[in-house]
Design goal:
single chain, 209 residues, alpha/beta, binds thymidine-5'-phosphate
């Protein structure tokens, strides 16, 4: 496998979509062959699972069913899109990956981290991102930005306490794996955040020259 796998993570309203564009453009300007994709999703089948997961519904959804669907989508995405792109030597930039499962299903929903780890091993083996950019901001800032957007999906309907737990797990994972994570303070003005993202990418480009 010769490509580089970068994931972008963060809570709601941290400016992930804006920074995804920054990442794509910076890597392309540096001459890299880039594939941008997302989770849950990334293949037609996995996008259908995404629709199922994000649609608001009356009934309570089983946390375990939600967890299994996240990994079902990931298995399809990895096999059909991510691994082939890396094998071609592409730089794959993924809007969320397994850290989101630890944060949302583990932190937010309270599912045991060990159960997630079992599925991670089953679906991914030793496969992990080369680098993960975590856009971090206090929950109230993210939620205020989120409210400016359209109709909330099933996750966006959660309460602030849910997103506090999500943020807590992201930060704990970043602290446990400082060599993989780049934590960027996303509460600053967007130009400063973009500059920090470009700086992080320059370090990665040098490492994987
Ligand atoms: P997005 O809004 O960033 O596109 O992500 C869709 C939602 O899916 C977001 O609220 C986070 C959630 N999610 C999980 O709960 N677990 C996961 O493993 C992934 C990839 C996303």
């Amino acid at each position: 496998m010769s490509g580089v796998f970068i994931t972008l993570e963060g809570g709601e309203g941290v400016g992930k979509s804006t920074q995804l564009t920054v990442v794509r453009e910076h890597l392309m300007q540096s001459g890299r062959d880039v594939l941008v994709t997302r989770e849950p999703g990334g293949t037609p089948f996995a996008e259908a699972i995404r629709d199922l997961l994000l649609a608001p519904r009356e009934e309570a959804v089983s946390g375990q069913a939600e967890l299994l669907l996240m990994f079902a989508a990931r298995a399809a995405h990895l096999e059909q899109r991510i691994r082939p792109a890396l094998a071609r030597g592409q730089w794959v930039v993924c809007d969320r990956f397994t850290d989101a499962t630890y944060a949302y299903q583990g932190g937010g929903r309270g599912l045991p981290q060990e159960e997630i780890a079992v599925l991670e091993r089953l679906v991914q083996g030793d496969f992990r991102p080369h680098a993960t950019i975590l856009l971090d901001a206090p929950v109230e800032i993210g939620l205020a930005r989120m409210q400016e957007r359209g109709a909330p999906d099933r996750f966006e309907r959660e309460q602030a306490a849910f997103f506090e737990r999500v943020r807590g797990v992201y930060l704990a994972r970043a602290a446990a794996e400082p060599e993989r994570f780049i934590v960027i303070d996303a509460s600053r003005p967007v130009e400063e955040v973009s500059a920090a993202v470009r700086g992080a990418l320059d370090a990665l480009l040098e490492r994987h020259a």
